[in-house]
Task: structure prediction
Amino acid sequence: MIPDSFKQDLLNRVDIVDVVSRYVQLKKGGANYVGLCPFHNEKTPSFSVSPAKQFYHCFGCGAHGNAIGFLMAYSALGYVDAVKELASAAGMQVPESRPPTPQEAARKERETDLYALMEKAMDFYRGELKKSPRAIEYLKGRGLTGEVAARFRMGYAPDDWQGLKAPFPEYEDKALVEAGLVIENEGKRYDRFRDRVMFPIFSARGAVIGFGGRVMGDGEPKYLNSPETPLFQKGQELYGLVQAREAISVARRVLVVEGYMDVVALAQFGVSYAVATLGTATTANHVVKLKRLSEEIVFCFDGDAAGRKAAWRALEVSIPLVEDKKPIRFLFLPEADDPDTFVRREGKDAFEALLRQAPTLSEFLVAELRSQVNLASPEGRNLFLANAKPHVQRVTAPGLRLQLVKELAPLGHVTQEEAEELFELRRGQPSYRRAGIPRALTPSKPLPIEVQLLRWVLVSPKGAADVDLSLMDGGLPETEVLRELLNLATEHPPEQLTQPFLLEKFRGSPYEPILVTAQERIVEFNAREDLAEQEIGMCMLNLRMQRTNDEIELLKKAVTADPRDKPKQLLLAAKLRDLTQMKEMKSKGEPWVIGMESARTGATSKLGLVRGEFPP
Result:
């Protein structure tokens, strides 16, 4: 383990221009140095090295990285050997390892205790299932056998407010709350899961880290999941992955569904390569983890509006992560069906036939974009291309991006070359760049705000302090990278958060492709650091206005929900007027305020208080 502090010091001491120039003949070209790429044959230089950002990038083949990455790629060295060679040239000695800090050792010991506690809870729930004829009949009614229930180690939480006192006589132990098994409220404790069929959630190593509980009747919520704990993060785990791993390897495919019961029912009928997200939208972590295990990912959703919305969210997350040789598909079942009901009625063969016909990511994307416009008119085709642009720009797989451009161009009545120019994909030197006119970091049709924020934070990492992640919906890979950057910003001073250091921190992580793509765009557009603070501020203001719009829509619904409650109606109507006025002030470029502040008391409503200036 090479300490982060050493890698940071090493990257601060070396100059990537000096490192690369030992192997590549470089010439000064504006703010950067250019030369012939050493990683592919070319006659016109497309290989750029940025001394300001200590980053290299080839606009021809896409090779990129920092000084360590260059040595690894050029000299075919392993990571440690590349660090050692770079350190030797800089006169530095690489520390081979370090012992864990007291905090790390204490955290490790605490996690070990929690794992044992969760295992004991699972054994208790499994024992309770055998004592509950009602739970057993429910599972049999869903078509499940005892073998499948045992395979997934299913259990039952008794209808008792403190049922866990049986396996845990020390019911006041704070570890029960920390593990998410017990809720503590106003000094009282009670079991989180009561009268539910229990589905243990396992880590990739097979340890119990959480639970999902399903009601057996019409209660709400239908599914109740463990909260976020030191062992369990919903956005990183998948239900059924441990049981499905072997089947995924054989089928070379993984099926992602929405519910625990869907996974178990599919396994009962021989479709054993299914997993489920844990009550949250698909995340980048999910996609990266499944790509490592399979050659194809199929997302399966209901055919209703909610299902298509969830599918679009999964598409947005998957676009920058999809690979040319690993397709991602989207299966939509009939509206009245879910995987459980369909496979029980139609059987395995019919279900797998649907899987093979499922649209690919690009087919789903193009179909959705076409449905939003009228391609018979010039305006409709123009809007079609404008809507497609931010999605095409986020595709990092070169082959897929090329095929997507070829697919979109004729629909927009333009040539492939014109489409590439409109999408800002051309790697040449367009006229405005030769003329010295600066190019914006973001395209004319804005990318998702999270994408813009990530790029500007990378231009000026100290700007991470101004980012409020609570305003974002989450789920997009860029949001998760921003979250990691904010964590780093609390551990390191701003001057240490250089782009080469960040690239090292994310090396090998699920977010490395996202970070690299963002850094490539920064190099390509030669983004200015002096603009970063202003642009980050504008991104945050736009996010706050999005939340204002959401609040307005909720208030509109609330105003008409209960017309008999006059005091409530007056209060809601007043709030709605305030928010609508603020929205109008934004459009006029006037100073604005979100939230309601009492100048006398300094009190602020739950909406929060934000002041700013909007450009006209």
